[in-house]
Amino acid sequence: MAIILAGAVKKIFEKRGVKLSTKPMLEKKPVIEFMRRMRVFGMEKFPNPTYISTINFYLNKKDMEKQVTLGMIALYIEQDFMEKLIKMLQYPQIDEDDEEQVKDACGAICNLICGQFKADLSLMGYWNVDMSHFSSYRNSALMGIPFYSKILEKYELNFYIKGEKRLVMEISMGPIPRLKKEDRKTFP
Amino acid sequence: MIKTEFCLEVTAVPSGSAYVPDSLEPEIRATAECASFSDMMKILIVDDSTLERKLLSSLIKKNGITNDVLQAENGEVALQVLASNFQDICLIVLDWQMPVMSGIEFMQGVVKVPQVAQIPIVMVTASSSEENKKQAQDVNPNLAAYVIKPYKPEDILNAIRPHLK
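^ inputs. structure came back:
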């Protein structure tokens, strides 16, 4: 799943003419759990204020309504780099002093990446999972985020632009059914 | 498929007349009356991301499209905007993943209401899987276009232009 996610990030960035310096660094890490929710801390990834956006995945719409989470993807971007990244991705200028605007921008980027990830999963013969809208935070999500609680490991991917670590993504995903070839055109 | 039920109140008025709710303040009523006589129909952009709405609005304006733009941050707000402005809206540009009411849920409701079902909808979404595209087309067989984010300006403009009035 982490490799598919890395591919999705690369595709989205390349569509907008942004080149990643190297292949992403991939690392398996334990999930820090509290009250059945995953803790996310920006300061673990960057030494400066950090914006975080998360999107959850569900097996189908019914599970989404019941909040039975299949997995999550989180995106971390340093506050100081947000305005530059938005410009690189050809979005209109944002006011980097407006926290809501920056959270929204971070969420929009996370949404693009997760949409591509979802499509790539589908192309590889996995179930067409449902994804939530984004939620965004500054530095940390106080109440944690939903995740697939039976797996207490996540993968962290560090992405570099012009030689500097600029994006961090985390993925924690439960088992996604794989469709048989003859079933691939059906969806839940 | 999960059913979504909601009520959309649409007030039918004779063609050529301007409908202005009594609850509006006098100065707003005056503005609404003037606006209703404008020749240009409006585009309704529905997306939870302010940045995405700003991107699309800016693309529309920069490319010589003079239609006014209305905005909504989710399907529920879009329904309210639609109920008040349905006679002036010529096109809806609709995201999928949104809080409160998703794009698919909004579309499921809209296609059942004859007064608004004929308004073309262009879906603009990060969900690029074929299954999602088919699901959108199943909900709305008259879906005008399905554009994937991030889009090239010409792709979204080519999807929008045929429906502008």
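The two ends of chain B are 34 Å apart (CA to CA). The helical segments of chain B are 26-36, 50-62, 75-85, 103-110, 114-117, 130-139, 153-160.
thumbs up if we can close this ticket
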